[in-house]
Amino acid sequence: MELSEVAQNILTVFTVACLGYLVGRVKIWGISLGATGIFLVGLIFGHFGVTTPKVLQDIGLVLFITATGLSAGPGFLQRIRRSGSSYIILCLTTTVVGCILCTAAIKLGHLSAPLAVGIMAGSFTTSPGFAAAQEAVQANAAAVTEVAAGYGLIYPVGVVCTVLFIQIVPRLLRANMDKERAIVEAGAKAGLEDAPKPKPNAFHIDKYGLCIFSVVVVLGIMLGSINIPLPGGGSFALGLTGGPLAVGLVFGHLAHQHPGVLNVDEKLIGPIEEVGLLLFFADAGIDGGHGVAAILAEYGMIPILYGLLMVITPLIIGFLVFRFYLKIPLLNGLSALTGSMTSTAALAVLTQQTKTDSIVAAYATTYPLALVLMVLVMQFLIAL
Fold it and tell me: Which of 48, 53, 127, 341 has the most beta carbons within 10 angstroms of its beta carbon?
């Protein structure tokens, strides 16, 4: 039996997904990886040379983040007005901690700046930061390789540690998840009670709102592609995550305020989120598995140790800040923390675990700022 290249790619992705869901169901001390199991299975496949088109990962990311933006759009602006400054402080905290640790790795640990910056980009799972670091050293081929090595090795560590952290913390606190969910959803409903009711004869382009969903994707990609110049010659863009997320939030808000033609059926959003997550995790895992063994053989365990520090320390300090200083509700705080670490994977698992999209607003507040800070920080650290 001979399979075409397209058939092979489809077979690979859904084989990884099937095995990944099974792995994600396994619980150790009550903790499970959930959909992140797909990512881990993908790493194994990638390590053994399996490849899939990068476009699958991008499509999955866009589908997932657009759907979550539409879900969280109603009441988003009200929530930002109430708590936006606290989320900004949290984002600044995690970024500064990461920057200090990266500087220590360069000055005290004697790692090269490109390698250390690549490790930090992987720890924060920030693709724009990674791109900014590579752009800053593009004249030096060896430095470009070191940035990529650090990022490729630690990115899976950053994803898994952040995903586990947001599951372990509620258990350590013995949090009542029903109560925490009620707190978040009560806040999400603030300002929504008086929203207009849908008009009975409202015009709909298609049955489920797929046309509007497509419009959001198109506008989101266009917004994310806009490059904003930064001091020092660099640039910043929201990318395939920030752009669709921002436009999804706006359309979700407008659809709630003016029910009718802009609505996307809620029955559509959930399945699109899940399919997007499947594609994103499967291809990202396969892509991340390439060359990991070679990097370990060359650098040993030292980069992994630094990577663990750059993941775990900002998470712990960020948690302490939002919990005891900023007094942010637990689920909103964890969502904002995943945004400050630019971890879409952790957000996906958190929304699955909490069974509410109301937490996405906190992520959406911190994520764009985290992207800007990461781009600036990477350029600064490379110069050390």
Answer: 341
